[in-house]
Amino acid sequence: MKKRSFNKLLVIFIRVTFTFISILFLSSMYTISNSYAQEKTVNIGADKIKAILLKQNGWVGEWNSKGWVQQWLTDFVFEDRKKKIIVKIHGIEPENRCERMVKINSDGFRMTGCYAGIVDLFYDPNDNRYPFKTKGDNLECDLKIKVK
User: Fold this and answer.
1) DSSP state for residue 83 in the 8-state scheme
2) N or C terminus: fewer CB in 10 A for the chain?
3) Which residues, including other chains, have CB under 8 Å from residue 57's CB and lie 6 or more apart?
4) Strand-pair category, 118-123 with 84-90
5) DSSP code of residue 69
6) Contact 37/132 with Cβ under 8 angstroms?
7) How far is CA 70 from CA 79, 139, 142, in A?
8) Backbone angles phi, psi at 107, to 5 degrees
9) Is residue 26 a contact partner of residue 18, using CB atoms and an 8 Å limit?
10) 65 alpha carbon, distance to own chain's centre
11) What SS3 state is found at 23?
């Protein structure tokens, strides 16, 4: 009986810890310097960015932490709903699944993660495998997405 209670507490502790780390990491992405990122990006226009995102049936995001040895994947599906672009985010954990609005810019797009943090992804026309990725040294994690 005690072992069963301990296992339940351990599972709860692990989920709370994972959620807390996710919140910290996503909220740290908000600190990206837009002026830095805009200096090093290609402006192809919001309409072209929108077309690229919607043309695909889905994207896979690869998150890489800088401080710890951790990597994880997230699925993204972009949809056009009544003149608004929505992203469906499907993480590993059921708690990391949500839908958010996307703001498309001339050089990429901005979205909010399931728990907060703002994520800015920039288009790189020279990278066929990962055409969208975060930029900046002050991020705790990098995100790059590729076609599913």
Assistant:
1) T
2) N
3) 77, 148
4) unpaired
5) S
6) no
7) 29, 15, 11
8) -125, 10
9) no
10) 12
11) helix
Assign 42 to helix, strand or coil.
coil
Tokens read off for 146: 């590729």
In eight-state DSSP terms, residue 40 is T
* Structure-token pair, residue 114: 């399931």
Tell which residue, 145, 14, 25, 21, has the closest CA to residue 89. 145
* Identity of the amino acid at 11: V
Q: How far apart are CA 76 and CA 60, in angstroms?
A: 6
Strand, helix or coil for residue 93: coil
Interatomic CA distance for residues 46 and 90, integer angstroms: 25
Q: With contact defined as beta carbons under 8 Å apart, do 144 and 135 qualify? A: no
How many angstroms separate the CA atoms of 148 and 137, rounded? Answer: 27
pTM: 0.67
DSSP letter for 136, please.
-
- Tens of pLDDT along 60-109? 988 887 766 677 888 999 999 988 999 999 887 767 789 999 999 999 99
**What are the tokens at 127?**
């990278």
